[in-house]
Design goal:
CATH superfamily of the largest domain: tRNA uridine 5-carboxymethylaminomethyl modification enzyme MnmG/GidA
Helix content: 40-55%
Strand order of the largest sheet: 1-2
CATH topology of the largest domain: Arc Repressor Mutant, subunit A
Largest sheet: 2 strands, antiparallel
Radius of gyration: 26 Å
Structural class: mainly alpha
Order of helices and strands: HEEHHHHHHHHHHHH
Bound molecules: flavin-adenine dinucleotide
Number of strands: 2
Number of domains: 4
Number of helices: 13
Distance between the termini: 44 Å
CATH class of the largest domain: Mainly Alpha
Shape: globular
């Protein structure tokens, strides 16, 4: 809270959520009011909130402090640069969180073994895994506060989804001996089935007699001429199960086994969000190319209204010359960079 008041001094109010601690208690957690101010100040602060004038504070807020080693001293493998063969993972690197600590341990372990075996290191990219985002942020940006993995720090979060984690990363897990062969081959078959299903849906044009009753039942406009099932699936009202009205294909069956239910989920996501996903995949490729993209000297960063307030402020002050430089400024998130990149590429005429 004390931090918010300084950083967002221009705001006249802050949102606070009152979260009940449980069914059998009248205690509430004040989400958004974490603080380590002195007790009397906390009591006064809480009671200044409309509605909480008579609140009774059962436990005051407190802060935890700990020492850390600046993670810029690490290689991306988590090995320390000053001392070869020494690997650091977790809170010692200035992070906070269970998962943050766990994934660093995993990466340090994998890379230590790879080094002993004389094999190539394993460093997932920012567009492949949240682990990649975390490591890249840690080793390239200096810390001002404990690092937490927020999804907003990942510029490619449409690709980094929980539902496709196995499709993205199981290949690696299998390579490192962490995944049994049958689980791996099931995933591969699923991946192939997803790809194949989309190809088939693109070619599949049902007769109007078959498809129109389905569309009418779902309250969406009937067809005058045939369209592919893939096109129809893009309509928000339509799901693959609707096509079971005229086909017994497993992809459409409500009673399908787990394999086909998982395939169906991915096919629906891929088809319905194709535009967004494709744009993001192209951004991944572009970002690699555009590292050296020049930013005009007189560029007014304040016009980038979707960039975070902190990002705009830092960019305006430091005035980076290239997109690569902008991306290394502390306080400028990767999603800010993605927005800046889209803006600069759209306005090619102002790029030297
Ligand atoms: C009160 C509190 C609540 C938290 N709540 C959450 C939460 O809800 N969600 C969340 O994600 N994170 C939470 N965290 C943060 C999270 O617990 C830590 O960031 C994470 O556990 C750090 O893991 P680590 O393995 O890096 O370090 P640690 O878990 O601290 O492990 C370090 C280990 O090293 C041992 N050690 C230290 N010195 C030596 C030595 N010289 N020789 C041998 N061993 C040594 C210690 O005994 C310890 O077991 C919380 C932290 C605190 C303090």
């Amino acid at each position: 809270m004390e931090d918010k008041i300084v950083r967002f001094a221009d705001k006249s109010s802050h949102q606070i959520f009152l979260e009940p601690e449980g069914r059998h208690t009248n205690e509430y957690y004040l989400n958004g009011f974490s603080t380590s101010l002195p007790e009397d100040v906390q009591v006064e602060g809480v009671r200044s909130i409309p509605g909480l004038e008579h609140a009774c504070i059962t436990r005051v807020g407190y802060a935890i402090e700990y020492d850390y080693f600046p993670p810029m001293q690490l290689l991306q493998t988590m090995e320390t640069k000053p001392l070869e063969n020494l690997y650091f993972a977790g809170q010692i690197n200035g992070t906070s969180g269970y998962e943050e600590a766990a994934v660093q341990g995993l990466m340090a372990g994998i890379n230590a073994v790879l080094k002993i075996r004389g094999e190539e290191p394993f460093v997932p990219g920012r567009s492949e895994a949240y682990i990649g985002v975390l490591i890249d942020d840690l080793v390239t940006k200096s810390l001002v506060e404990p690092y937490r993995m927020f999804t907003s720090l990942a510029e490619f979060r449409l690709i980094l989804r929980q539902d496709n984690a196995d499709l993205r990363l199981m290949e690696y897990g299998y390579k490192f001996g962490l995944i049994p062969a049958n689980v791996y081959s099931d995933m591969q078959k699923r991946k192939e089935a997803i790809k194949q299903s989309i190809v088939e849906l693109k070619k599949w044009r049902s007769s109007l007699e078959d498809i129109n009753p389905v569309l009418e039942r779902k309250g969406t406009a009937p067809l005058q001429q045939k369209e592919s099932l893939e096109q129809l699936l893009k309509r928000p009202e339509i799901t693959l199960v609707d096509f079971s009205a005229f086909s017994s294909h497993e992809l459409f069956s409500e009673k399908a086994n787990l394999f086909w239910r998982k395939v169906r989920e991915q096919v629906e996501i891929e088809v319905k969000y194709e535009g967004f996903l494709e744009r993001q995949r192209q951004q991944v490729e572009k970002l690699k190319e555009l590292e050296g993209l020049k930013i005009p000297e007189q560029f007014d960063f304040n016009r980038l209204s979707s960039v975070s307030t902190e990002g705009r402020e830092k960019l305006s002050r430091i005035k980076p010359g290239t997109l690569g430089q902008a991306s290394r400024i502390l306080g400028v998130s990767q999603s800010d960079i993605a927005i800046l990149m889209v803006y600069l590429s759209r306005r090619k005429n102002i790029i030297h």
